[in-house]
Amino acid sequence: MEWKQLPLGPLQTNAYLVYQKNGDCLIIDPGEEPEKINEWVRQKNLNPKAILLTHAHFDHIGAVDDIRVKYEIPVYVHEQEKSWLGDPAKNGSSFFAGLSEVTAKGPDFTWNREEEIAIEGFIFSLLYTPGHSPGSVSFYFPAQSLVISGDALFQGSIGRTDLPGGDGKLLLKSIHQKLLTLPEDTYVLPGHGPVTTIEDEMESNPFLNGFSI
After folding, report:
1. Residue 86 exposure: Cα atoms within 13 Å on the Cβ side
2. Per-residue pLDDT for 176 more than 70?
3. Which of 35, 114, 134, 158 has the highest CB neighbour count under 10 A?
4. Whether 73 contacts 49, CB under 8 Å
5. How many Cα neighbours within 13 Å face the side chain of 188?
6. By C-alpha distance, which of 13, 106, 111 is closest to 64?
C-alpha cells in the first residue's frame, strides 16, 4: 500500500489517498479543491472505493459531495458526527467571518465502536480519539506502520479544542491512550502540517509533557 498527502484549501488541510498496487484507493478527508484530488487519481489511474472522514469539521468535508458523486462511492464518519456534514453550526463553518458555509449530504455509513475495519481489501484499526471533536477517529494501518490522526496529533502540536464539542483534557487522554501506545516507529499522518512519528512526538511535543491520566 502507498499513500499521498494533498494539502488543500486555505487552511491547507491534508487529504490522503491510500492505494493498492491494483489501483484501489481510499480518499480520506477531502477538504476542498476536488480537482486536485481528481488529477492525482487520474495520474495514478486509481479506482476510488470510499471516502473516510477522521471528523466532520468544515475544512475536512468541503469536497465530499463532489468526490462522492464523481466516483459513486460511500462516505464513512463516526456516529456522533453524522449530522455535522449538513449543519454549518456543528461543522464550524458558520463561526468564521468571510467563510462560506460548508455543507455535505449525510454519510452512507457510520462507526460507533473501535474495531478492525476491512473495506475493499484495505484493513485498518479504527481508533476512537475524541477531544478535538466528539467523533474524531484515527485510522491505524499496522502493516504499513502508519496512523492517520486527523486533527488529534500534529508535529509539535495537538488539535484545537475551542470549537463546539471540543475537550482539551479528553484530547490529551485520547492521544496518550490511543496514539502514543502505538509502536514508536509509527508514522503519523496529521490533518495539517508535515508527517511525523510517534517517537518524535513523545520526545519533543511540548503539549504532551507533564500529562498524567
Report:
1. 5
2. yes
3. 158
4. yes
5. 31
6. 106
**What residues does 65 pair with on adjacent strands?**
none
At 213, the pLDDT band (50, 70, 90 cuts) reads: very low
Q: What is the pLDDT of residues 57-66, one digit of tens each?
A: 999 999 999 9
Rounded Cα gap, residues 131 and 67, in angstroms:
27
* 1: amino acid identity, one letter: M
| Cell numbers standing for residue 119 | 473495506
Angle at 110 between CA 9 and CA 68, to 5 degrees: 45
Helix/strand/coil for 33: coil
Residues 6+ away with beta carbon under 8 Å from 130: 80, 136, 167, 170, 171, 174
Q: How far apart are CA 29 and CA 4, in angstroms?
A: 12
Asked whether 40 and 27 are in contact (CB, 8 A), the reply is no
148 sits in which H/E element: strand 146-150
**pLDDT at residue 8, rounded to an integer:** 97
**Which residues touch 97 (CB under 8 Å, ≥6 apart)?**
none
- Report residue 29: phi and psi, to 5°: 55, 60
CA distance 197 to 146: 9
Cell match 487520474: residue? 42
